[in-house]
Amino acid sequence: MNRASPPLILMPAMTDANRWTEILTEHRDWLRTVIRARLFDLHASEDLLQDVAIAVLAQDNRPTEQEHIAPWLYRITLRKIINYQRFQGRQKNLLRRYGRLRQHAETDDAEQGEALHWLMQREQAAELRTALAKLSQGDREMLMLKYTHQWSYAQIASSLGVSPKTIEYRLLRARKSLRAELTRVSGEVCHD
């Protein structure tokens, strides 16, 4: 009796685009943090992250070695951030006017007790944003990766393509700078 063997089911091979989609998914959180550290705009970070993904998939010269992927993604992300910042520079006045109108509308809607609590939170957040804005972009990135994602020195170093000792030194310097800026900003607010 001649039995027919079951049909052979072949799984499609993973395409290069699928592989890079998985790599981008793996690196998405820290890339988003890098973008947010430089832009301070949560909505724009998602759009910019998509632009990074499109740029990565459009590249022909993608790295093949694992240790080169994160620094390569970092460089592409920086290029996209710079282009976005140029665009934002052209629309700066419009955004300022919108921010002032929004601030007035939020203040009018708040009740007196809630308004004080809201105002204190806004002042503290504004002081922190002002202090962070005074730091270098690299210092902001490292602080946000360290304290929003709880990354180790080794993880940050691997992603930025530097040694863990360099990250340790830079984070120490960044924390000192942030403390000094917060003290200065708080002092300016108290004297106004």
Automatic annotation (TrEMBL):
Span of domain RNA polymerase sigma factor 70 region 4 type: 127-178
Organism superkingdom: Bacteria
Any Pfam family matching the protein: Sigma70_r2
GO biological processes: DNA-templated transcription initiation
Transcription regulation as UniProt keyword: yes
Keyword Transcription regulation: yes
CDD domains found in the cross-reference section: Sigma70_r4
Annotated RNA polymerase sigma-70 region domain residues: 25-90
Keywords from the named record: DNA-binding, Sigma factor, Transcription, Transcription regulation
One MF annotation (Gene Ontology) recorded for this entry: sigma factor activity
Family from the record: Belongs to the sigma-70 factor family. ECF subfamily.
Protein's recorded name: ECF RNA polymerase sigma factor SigE
Protein species of origin: Roseimaritima ulvae
Annotated gene: sigE_3
